[in-house]
Design goal:
Catalyzes the NADPH-dependent reduction of ketopantoate into pantoic acid. The protein is of the alpha/beta class. 45% of the residues lie in helices and 20% in strands. The longest helix is centred in the middle third of the chain and has 21 residues, at 189-209. It starts with 11 loop residues before the first strand and ends with a helix.
Length: 312
């Protein structure tokens, strides 16, 4: 496969998983003039009537419904040049059904999902040469159908699956950059995934395990803050055993950047409070299993994984 972005000047882009994350990035790209098609379910009628509204710290922008491409089924969208997956990993069993109608021979598939395992799942179904991954360091929530609030725009890091950065990856990164998203490319996607877990494992997990609390309450409690730091170091040790070095300074930076977030609800807490399925296996289970495979002890991660299974 030629690893370039098909129709690079004006690629047809599908957003699969049009929740907070998918709508935010999709709206950014659409506002910048990209040909974006949103696959929607529950919010479809509202968005077709009212459009999409996105709030960020510096502005609020609105995309009227007549400017948006929305669809209830992937067949309505048809083959695309780039498919962006923003589904929860609990919906991975739907990959074939949702993605196959969106593909042609040169389609790039970019998954923005949390945790570990989705890259490999997608590669097994659609071929490794099609797969790219993105790690989103962002605070974004869906307030209501068609209403997205982003309190910290953060950054997006992109990588190819089991390959260094390509022309295709850089072309996609440039699309996000022009849309106002701070975007970088990496030669090491799996290291990016481990680094994201350094934050996701403690804060998504402890927010649920400690009784449904926001990140500011975790950081205000010395016991919980210490537990978060210890979980981070377990993830860093597991990552190191897989050839991904994460320095102590990175751990400290995650703690420091969490303090000013305020009363932020991590995505897993939002799912838990809404009684939706939580991404327990991709965020906690798969890292735990990969640590065990390299004989890295992760007692805190194991306890948190078991507790989250019991609670969710």
């Amino acid at each position: 496969m030629n690893l370039t972005l098909t129709n690079a000047a004006s690629p047809k882009i599908a957003i699969v998983g049009a929740g907070a994350l998918g709508c935010y990035y999709g709206a950014r790209l659409a506002r910048a003039g990209e040909n974006v098609h949103f696959l929607m379910r529950g919010d479809l009628a509202t968005v077709r009537k009212r459009g999409l509204t996105v709030s960020v710290p510096t502005e609020t922008f609105h995309l009227p419904p007549e400017t948006l491409h929305t669809a209830a089924t992937p067949g309505e969208i048809g083959p695309c040049d780039l498919v962006i997956i923003a589904l929860k990993t609990t919906a991975n069993a739907s990959f074939r059904e949702l993605i196959t109608p969106l593909l042609h021979d040169g389609t790039a598939i970019l998954t923005l999902q949390n945790g570990l395992g989705s890259d490999e799942e997608l590669a097994a179904i659609f071929g490794a040469e099609h797969i790219l991954g993105g790690i989103c360091f962002i605070c974004v929530n869906r307030l209501a159908p068609g209403e997205i609030s982003c309190t910290s725009t953060g950054a997006l890091s992109l990588g190819e699956f089991q390959r260094p950065a390509t022309e295709r990856l850089r072309a996609i990164a440039e699309k996000f950059t022009r849309a106002g998203v701070k975007t970088t490319v990496s030669d090491n996607l799996i290291e990016l995934r481990w680094r994201k877990l350094v934050w996701n494992v403690p804060f998504n997990g402890l927010s649920i395990a400690a009784g449904g609390i926001t990140t500011d309450k975790i950081m205000a409690d010395p016991v919980l803050e210490n537990e978060a730091a210890a979980l981070m170091r377990e993830i860093a040790a597991a990552a190191a055993a897989h050839g991904c070095a994460i320095p102590e300074s990175f751990v400290q930076k995650q703690l420091d950047t969490t303090r000013p977030m305020g009363a932020y609800k991590p995505s897993s807490l939002i799912d838990y409070l809404a009684k939706r399925e939580v991404e327990v296996e991709s965020i906690w289970g798969e890292p735990m299993r990969r640590a065990k495979a390299r004989n890295v002890p992760t007692p805190r991660l194991e306890m948190l994984h078991a507790l989250l299974h019991a609670l969710t």
